[in-house]
């Protein structure tokens, strides 16, 4: 039965003539173990050697004396591997030197920091060690990628389930490695956000930035201002139904993200990008009149009323309620494209709002225009400029960085996942130009803005704006294969940066995405293997 399915798929591949890179293996051959240096993001240090480990139906997952978090990571790993392998993979806290072993602490793990891990693979066992549970989780993602791509399928598959022998010692380059999802232009529900979180986790990202409000929709319940969601969340770009997260939904996302070692950064974009809020409450408008809801895609036409006291009552309530359900340290206050706010008003508004974020125990992040106002001590600026950004605007950002404002680097013509790949891309926008897979990978976050001190870069982010995207399949077509490149810029040492080697590793991810049901863009820049 299994054999026939395999044979059928081989025939299909041959018939379709897609197997250009390498001849398909004979039907009876077990898939070769993935070499340790095929992992994305590239690990910091790889020492291949020795015999592989082979998972079998007697393999156990050991968390010797493991605490709740280590046990949870073990349970997650078992859940990933059971469907395709068909093995029971029991999780046990009993120690032993065989099977898959997940361990917190011991044997030099302090050097691995908050997120690093060491994976040692040999004929008797695969051991992942880390100082902290996040490191164990990232190590598990490496272990997962070392197994054949068919391990991602949710029905039983033929093995063999081999993990190449050797050692991987791995720590991240940056502590902030994010993806942003715009749930305002089009709304994406809890299930869709969880699906995206799972995809981010595979590439060791640790932050999910949710763009929760914009002109087209307000997507997070705020009890003290209920019309924000009942009215402001009722539509989206194109006039569809929209939607919003209840507080329970939001908490569920935060919890799910935490189980994948991602922190949620919520964004309320202001003082511009606020039509949905202005439409929900007339008193937030300088003229006291609520504008209609907006379902187009223009930007820069809305502004909170900066001189009005009511505006700050509103901001205080929103930040208080949002901060109370957000365990992470950051709260994003937007601040981009405030074209309908005078510069003086913009500065006055940001001067008032940053202390509100601090009052509720959070650190503010703002889009980089905040650098042209007065970034408060500790505030982080997110650079989203591109090659056409003026020297003056860049200078504001680099000067702020020289004065201690830390930066998240997300250049629109490099890391925006909603930019078209080329002129034929059916989805997405092109205002920052086309962003090919190479263009999105082949740059250096540390030197992208000359003059920014090394410590000034907190990390990288890949934003995904959704003016043209309304389904998970569409998100995935734009994110894959570019998202892993941004993840690699955030995780891997600069010394490993090499387009030719990267695209070979990226190509090997294609069959994994096929197995996961991710419909990625088969960019001609990447030597994809034939489909199986
Ligand atoms: C942005 O793309 N307006 C931050």
UniProtKB/TrEMBL annotation:
Gene3D superfamilies: Chitobiase/beta-hexosaminidase domain 2-like, Glycosidases. Residues 1-21 form the signal peptide. It comes from the Bacteria. Keywords: Glycosidase, Hydrolase, Signal. Residues 38-170 form the Beta-hexosaminidase bacterial type N-terminal domain. It catalyses: Hydrolysis of terminal non-reducing N-acetyl-D-hexosamine residues in N-acetyl-beta-D-hexosaminides. InterPro entries: Beta_hexosaminidase_sua/sub, GH, Glyco_hydro_20_cat, Hex-like_dom2, HEX_bac_N, TAT_signal. Residues 174-341, 347-493 form the Glycoside hydrolase family 20 catalytic domain. Its EC number is 3.2.1.52. The keyword Phosphoprotein does not apply. Belongs to the glycosyl hydrolase 20 family. PANTHER family: BETA-HEXOSAMINIDASE, BETA-N-ACETYLHEXOSAMINIDASE. This is beta-N-acetylhexosaminidase.
């Amino acid at each position: 039965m299994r054999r026939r399915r395999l044979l059928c798929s081989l025939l299909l591949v041959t018939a379709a003539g897609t197997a250009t890179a390498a001849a398909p293996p004979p039907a009876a051959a077990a898939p070769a173990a993935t070499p340790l240096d095929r992992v994305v993001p590239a690990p910091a240090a790889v020492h291949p050697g020795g015999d592989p480990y082979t998972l079998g139906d007697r393999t156990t997952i050991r968390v010797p004396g493991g605490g709740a978090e280590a046990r949870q990571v073990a349970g997650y790993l078992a859940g990933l591997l059971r469907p395709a392998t068909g093995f029971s993979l029991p999780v046990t806290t009993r120690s032993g030197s065989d099977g898959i072993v997940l361990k917190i602490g011991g044997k030099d793990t302090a050097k691995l920091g908050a997120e690093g891990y060491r994976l040692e693979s040999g004929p008797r066992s695969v051991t992942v060690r880390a100082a902290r549970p996040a490191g164990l989780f990232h190590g598990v993602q490496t272990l997962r990628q070392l197994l054949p791509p068919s391990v991602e399928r949710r029905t039983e598959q033929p093995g063999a389930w081999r993990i190449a022998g050797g050692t991987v010692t791995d720590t991240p380059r940056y502590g902030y490695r994010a993806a942003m999802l715009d749930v305002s232009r089009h709304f994406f529900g809890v299930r869709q956000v969880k699906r995206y979180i799972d995809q981010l986790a595979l590439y060791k990202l640790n932050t999910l930035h949710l763009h929760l409000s914009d002109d087209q929709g307000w997507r997070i319940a705020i009890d003290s201002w209920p019309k924000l969601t009942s009215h402001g969340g009722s539509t989206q770009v194109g006039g569809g139904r929209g939607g919003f997260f209840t507080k329970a939904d939001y908490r569920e996302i935060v919890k799910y993200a935490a189980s994948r070692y991602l922190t949620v950064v919520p964004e309320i974009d202001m003082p511009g990008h606020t039509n949905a809020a202005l439409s929900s409450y007339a008193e937030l408008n300088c003229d006291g009149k609520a504008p209609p809801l907006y379902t187009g895609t223009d930007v820069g036409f809305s502004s909170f009323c900066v001189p009005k006291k009511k505006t700050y009552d509103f901001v205080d309530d929103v930040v208080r309620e949002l901060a109370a359900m957000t365990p992470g340290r950051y709260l994003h206050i937007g601040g981009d494209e405030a074209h309908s706010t005078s510069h003086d008003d913009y500065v006055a508004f940001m001067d008032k709002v940053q202390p509100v974020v601090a009052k509720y125990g959070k650190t503010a992040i703002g889009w980089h225009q905040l650098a042209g106002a007065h970034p408060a001590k500790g505030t982080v600026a997110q650079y989203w400029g591109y090659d056409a950004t003026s020297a003056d605007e860049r200078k504001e950002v680099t000067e702020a960085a020289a004065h201690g404002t830390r930066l998240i680097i997300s250049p629109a013509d490099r890391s925006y996942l909603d930019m078209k790949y080329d002129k034929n891309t059916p989805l997405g926008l092109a205002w920052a130009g086309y962003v090919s897979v190479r263009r999105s990978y082949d740059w250096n976050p540390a030197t992208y803005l000359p003059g920014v001190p090394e410590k000034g870069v907190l990390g990288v982010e890949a934003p995904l704006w959704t003016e043209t995207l309304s389904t998970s399949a569409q998100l995935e077509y734009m994110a894959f294969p570019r998202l892993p490149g941004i993840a690699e810029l955030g995780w891997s040492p600069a010394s490993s940066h090499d387009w030719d080697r990267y695209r070979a590793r990226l190509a090997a991810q294609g069959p994994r995405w096929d197995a996961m049901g991710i419909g990625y863009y088969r960019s001609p820049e990447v030597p994809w293997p034939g489909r199986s």
